[in-house]
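User: quick one
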Amino acid sequence: MGIHARPAAALAVLNLVAAGIPLVAQPGPALGPKDGPGLPPTDTARVAVGMMAPDFTLASRTGGPVTLSDNRGRKNVVLVFYRGHW
Amino acid sequence: MKQENRYDTQIVALSIDDREHLDSMVARVAATDGRTIDFTMLSDPGHRVIDRYGLLNPSGRGWPHPTTYVIDKSGRVRWKFTEVNYKIRPTNAMVLEALGRLR
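Assistant: Done. Structure below.
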């Protein structure tokens, strides 16, 4: 009785699922914010000093997708939202 | 840029411009100012990240209220400047001072 009685393959799958590793190949990072669907778009005080910056992945001009949280533990980020072309 | 290296920092600029518009802006800056843009430029054409940050300017065409964040290595916002008047913008000195306080 208990986990020692389970076949090794089933236990390996359980460990993978527990680790959060997807069992199906992903097509690639989806672009956009990683959370917060349905939040109103104008609420300028939402992301304030002291709070975690919402994570996202977007396409960069010169290369592939860029994810904000890739900088964690490595670099500070100056994140500039600007108007763009008129 | 050299000062940013001293502060261990990546500069990321985000707008609704798509790659074509970004390329032409980079070319224009190179032609008129002779300067190379070497920071990361991201496209948010559907303003979904702009919306997530609550920065959508409702009177525009998906434009954000121009805002600069300084985010530390743990992912936490440590400084923020929202422009309400396009003539008043954060200076490099202000951003560098905010970076200097991060340890």
